[in-house]
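Problem: given the chain below (385 residues), write out its structure.
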Amino acid sequence: MVKKLEELGIGRPSTYAPTITKIMEKGRGYVTKESRIGVERKYHVLTLVNSELTDKIETEITGSTSNRLYPSDLGMLVVDFLDEHFEDIMTYSFTADIEDKLDEIAKGAENWKEMLEDFYGPFHSTVEKTIEEASRVKGRRDLGKDPESGYTVLTQMTRFGPVVQIGTREEVGEDEKPRFASLKAGQSIETISYEEAMDLFKLPLTVGQYNGEDLVVNSGRYGPYIKYKEKFVSIPRGEDPLELTLERAQELVEEKLKQDAPVASYKGNEVTKGKGRFGPFLKWNDLYINIPRRINPDTITQEEIFELIEAKIQKEANRYISQWPEENIALENGRWGPFIRYKKKSFKIEKKDDGERYTAEEAKEKFTLEEVKKLLKEQGAKGIK
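Solution.
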């Protein structure tokens, strides 16, 4: 990618890394980093010896890659949208020309204000027009008809990602809902076939039982899973849920049950252990307690478990200055002094007139619910009555 940018004259060495980092941000979902297994291809080997021609068929693997960036469906739709509405800016020469003009400005050969005016005026007008007129891009492709219902089978981008859909809103009316299925890893709304799309609707699928309870394989927002009683067991990436055997499903469920088994009991409530987005943790009485790096989660002792729980209880007790649960509002202690939490967002409390921060005792006395609501409204919080 850097080599191509250099060939086109786009960017500078100092901007290559930030550009690629931005493209790869997981929250944006523009690209995926994948290793793909190639496909077998047959080819003919023709050999001419002593005027005699022989034909031998051999095979090779083609298309295999390792840790390569691939554009996601969302990434391709974003590019299509920008190409349609910002054609001038999306040309390779535009960025290169801007770079040259910036070099001229650095040399003092061009006026930076004039350069910005020439660019920003038309650009701002295009942005305003796009906001007003452009419709949401979905990348819809109609693949065929469902033989059972007669509804359209289509694929498109939704707010939950790329999906296959049976039935449009117009077709199903108010009494029914379209059926949705998430695409599997490696599938794309631009290339998925009708047959591949219909295979996705074979789920949910009962593969058998474990301890007298059904094991149901299905696919959800976060990928394929097995439902056992009230537990949802993720199926590892790379394993096809449609090809999952009963033995493998039972193995995954047993692993999950082992992970979720209580590791201790504290004050009559079970303590369980898990691993989440921020590392290993303990769960006790609806509290999630992070296990610090100094403690090995695999060899954690009961004494260490109890110490962590007690520390968490103490921390939670000191966390709240005032609470109004029915309003989803709380006055909390923070590292830099008291602050307001409304729903899941934090809102600041200005310092006192003397420049000092409020203590917890001062904040509790001064900030009633009405005062807190007033501060929230001043800071643009929505839904405050």
